[in-house]
Design brief:
Helix content is 34%, strand content 13%. With 93 residues, the chain is of the alpha+beta class. A two-stranded antiparallel sheet has the order 1-2.
């Protein structure tokens, strides 16, 4: 089979991803938390992480509902520079 194939999440992956996200916030607190991340594993075994801080999630993305976005904003606030208009509107800011 060719192309992109989803892999099952290994045990402990979610906890590790949350810890990674929290560490990113500690290193760049004014940006708040990233909204999405994409992991890419190449043929040589190199893992690349791409983070999204500003782009609005696609419509219907239930992983980033308004309540979750508000909770993130309260726990990990963003500076005005890192606050896109769509996010301010969705969290009520």
């Amino acid at each position: 089979m060719c192309g992109i194939r989803p892999l099952p999440m290994p045990t402990g992956f979610e906890a590790t991803a949350r810890s990674f996200r929290d560490r990113d916030v500690a290193e760049l607190p004014e940006a708040g938390s990233w909204l999405r991340a994409k992991l890419t594993l190449d043929a040589a075994g190199v893992l690349t992480v791409s983070r999204t801080y500003l782009r609005e999630p696609p419509p219907g993305d239930v992983t980033l509902d308004d309540a979750g976005l508000r909770q993130d904003a309260e726990r990990m606030p963003r500076s005005a520079y890192w606050m896109p208009e769509w996010l301010a509107r969705r969290i009520g800011g």
